[in-house]
Write a structure and sequence with these properties.
six-stranded mixed barrel
Amino acid sequence: MMRIIATVKIALRALRRNKMRSLLTMLGIIIGVGSVICAVSLTTGVTKQVEAQVQSLGESVLTVFSGNFTSGAARGGWGSAPTLTVEDALAIATLPNAVAVSPEVRDREQVLANGLNWNTQVQGEGPDYPQIRNWRIASGVMFTDQDVRGLAKTAVIGKTVVDQLFPNEEPLGQTLRVRNIPFTIVGVLAPKGFNLFGQDQDDVVLIPYSSHMRRITSRTFVNSILVQAANDKVIDQVQQEITDTLSARHRSREPDFTVRNQLELMQTVTATSKSMGFLLSGVAAVSLFVGGIGIMNIMLVSVTERTREIGIRMAVGARAADIVVQFLMEAVTLSAIGGILGIGGGMGCSMLIAAWKNTPTVTPAIWIAIAFVSSAVIGVVFGFYPAWKASQLDPIDALRYE
């Protein structure tokens, strides 16, 4: 133990003698480790943000899009033709693992209230919509199945609509006009903010889908159908059951609808951020390799400069193993200190970028450990050859070296 402590002291003393050279040698490790930490922190933060935003769209949610069509030689993808009906939604609602279903009709409309007007998204939805989207009603209530059956003129509005039409006023019970049709506001949604597509989720007016289809637009088809599965474990099963049910109902040669689930959405959105993280980590790995070569180069120079010192140590009884440990300890110390500085620099850099771009940053503890261990391993790997070379010097020749 005393021998190890003495060796560490000798290594630190040797590094202190050449402070600038030691700092420049560590720079490659600092940049490499810092790049890894910064890339991982930003990528993890963005991934967490995407996961939170996808969850804000609802848990275990599937969306059935009205779409795919073939007419003669013309073909189209989802959304290209109206094919879904309210009856399709009712059929999906009978599936055992579909716990909530909402037919969806969407349009942008100019709405009027309180002497003000605002262009917003007017959505026809079912009573299950807040449950599917995991969206709390901040005040008031959601419209009911009875409202849907009776084509009720009731509405639930988002926070942005409240701010634009009812500043400093209580909106509940007031009248909102859509195409000059009066709707009574019965509820206000809790704020949700922007979604991962950059859309303001709070800029919305919800009305019963039946009222939208009969009173506002005179439609017979819905844009989409939202479905909540019982849990994530059965989401693939529910997706297949929806496909089978609608295929049997529509009896078309090709599916005229598309079913997507939130897991697919999350995988698609996070794929880009993960690819960027791998790319940045690859660049950082190259920086670490270059830093390791720098350590080897400087340690070889150090061996040459300290040949007489090595000869004196051997002459007074130092073994070859002691010389190896001494120079290895110097290399590991250089890389370990560089790793610590790189970790701090990488975390600081990620925080600055996150503050600049207004994005979250998360640094997993496991990656801090990996970065530190990697820097130490680089010291061992790239410091071994100079240390071995120093241990092979002949004491007599070393003492004669000028």
